[in-house]
Amino acid sequence: MVFHTNDIMDVSNGLKEYEVVYLAALVGMNVEEKNRIIDHLAKYMAPGALLMLRSAHGARAFLYPVVDTNDLGGFEVLSVFHPTDEVINSVVIARKYPMVLLPNKCCSDEVQAFKPLSNHGNNMIEELVVEEN
């Protein structure tokens, strides 16, 4: 396993080499900046690659920015985990949609994202919250 630390906005085609991209919680300290970074990743990551995002939930959002799964355009959300113990960050796992040529309205050659698990535009999201008794 190899880790590279870099300003993600300076990386473009190099992202296609990786099967997993890990985005730390403090990358993008406001919604607009974080969404700009996620859009950049959606543009340059390899189709089918996984994106692991750190987020926050509930009162923990006072410490770390929240990633809204609705803002993950270009990605299929696979899982969301919100811890309830001393761990602060939530984890979101998403996969970049593979791009395939699908005919649109009979004869167009437009490129569209293939979304095999989408249900009329809604991602199938698994959320898991663990509570200790």
UniProtKB/TrEMBL annotation:
One function term, GO molecular function aspect: nicotianamine synthase activity
Pfam families from the UniProt entry: NAS (PF03059)
PROSITE patterns named among the record's database cross-references: NAS
Gene3D superfamilies: Vaccinia Virus protein VP39
Catalytically driven reaction(s): 3 S-adenosyl-L-methionine = nicotianamine + 3 S-methyl-5'-thioadenosine + 3 H(+)
GO term, biological process aspect, one: nicotianamine biosynthetic process
Enzyme Commission number: 2.5.1.43
Leading EC class: transferase
Keyword entries, A-Z: S-adenosyl-L-methionine, Transferase
Family: Belongs to the nicotianamine synthase (NAS)-like family.
Role: Synthesizes nicotianamine, a polyamine which serves as a sensor for the physiological iron status within the plant, and/or might be involved in the transport of iron.
PANTHER family given in the database record: NICOTIANAMINE SYNTHASE 3 (PTHR32266:SF12)
Protein known as: Nicotianamine synthase
Organism: Trifolium medium
